[in-house]
Each structure stands twice: as structure tokens, then as C-alpha cells.
Amino acid sequence: MPELHLTLYSSSFCGACNSTRATVERVAELVGERLDWREVNVADAPDESEASGIVTTPTVVITGADGSERMRASGVPTTPQLLAAIAAALP
Hints:
Layout: E1 4-10, H1 15-31, E2 35-41, H2 46-51, E3 59-64, E4 69-74, H3 79-89
Parallel strand pairs: 1-2
Antiparallel strand pairs: 1-3, 3-4
């Protein structure tokens, strides 16, 4: 069972979202089963995006297994930045 969940909030024609997706995919491979992730297109899920307070894309939100938010960042993270955020968010 994953210890952390990562949600990438994106939009269809967002070049920065494509870069962030590639970084998340690379990091997910490195972290393995400790992390699961999903992508939410804000146009396809406006209610969820609004309820989560998403105002810009890309936005990455990391939550613990209990659902508590551990980290939120907008913009394109580097692989080291995302790995550091995940390490800091692990229980």
C-alpha cells in the first residue's frame, strides 16, 4: 500500500504540464510502491479542482495515506526537487 499519493492537476494545452508529467513519471519509477499518482485535468474535473483550491496548472499535491496534505507546489519541479519533497513528506 502506498505511503503517499501524488495528484498532478493539469490542463490540456499546457506545455509546463507535459514537463511536470514527465518528471512525475520519472520520480514514480524511482520511488516505486511507496507512491502512487494520478493526473486530474482541471477542465474534466472542475468541481474536484475547485474543491482542492487549484488556481493554476501545473499544480502538484502530495497527500499522506490518511489523506492529509503534505506538500503543494505550482510550476514545473525538477526531479531532485520532487524527490526532496517526497522524502520530506514520508512518515
